[in-house]
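REQUEST FORM: STRUCTURE PREDICTION
Request ID: SP-0412
Submitted by: Lab K.M.
Chain count: 1
Length (residues): 258
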Amino acid sequence: MEQEQLKELAIQATQKIAHAIQGEQFFTEPFKHAVIDDFFPSALANELLNQFPAPESPVWERTHDEDIEIKLRTKWESEFDIPEGIIDAIRIMNSSYMLKAMAALFSIPKLMPDPYFSGGGLNATVRNGLLDVHVDGNYHDASGLNRRINAILYLNPGWQEGWGGEIGFYDATGENLVKKIPPFHNRLVIFDTNDFSFHGLPDPLNFPENRARQSIILYYYTKESRPSDQISINDPHSALWKKRNFTDKRGNKTRDFQ
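STATUS: Completed
RESULT:
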């Protein structure tokens, strides 16, 4: 896509974040989050679908921790690993326009993207896949920055309620489901990630055998630490899982870091 055209798309898309309507597109409970439908023009969203790898593709890293995480994700190390047809969307989502819009909406100044794509990229979950209720890791080893925002763009045309796969948002204990958000095609979900923003899809998916729950997930960071009321563990930690008694996959609350 030509630079000027891409710039215009970035401005148009991120204006939808900047003008998110309180109570309709932007919410504060159980933690701050935004739900923006028709985020990209349909032509770009359809191109993302066309370029999205099939579940059997060798590009996937396959995670199969039976009780807490069964899914596929890419292992990008830089933007040079991103397929043609998808790179334009990533450039928009990591652009200064998107950063400024999210920073203003969530009152988190000086957001930065992740050029290392640590944990970010494409995600796919097939039938019987799941993601236990958890909070995300808080620290980025490559930069020393603090993780603050998650953005998920769903790519699931024709999704039906009986398929499952709605992301669940939970209360600050991680015990009680507060809200479920369907993974509609071209829907962008952004949320504040901290030590109390429990989320997941713990019920195994019921997608058709030939379909996968598809998304692009990117993370954003700040030099500034999270506010004290968003911190339960001061040291760096990985994702902490409900079914592991709110520890990481190794049974730890904290981890070694660089």
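NOTES: The CA atoms of residues 71 and 125 lie 5 Å apart.
Reviewed by: T.R.
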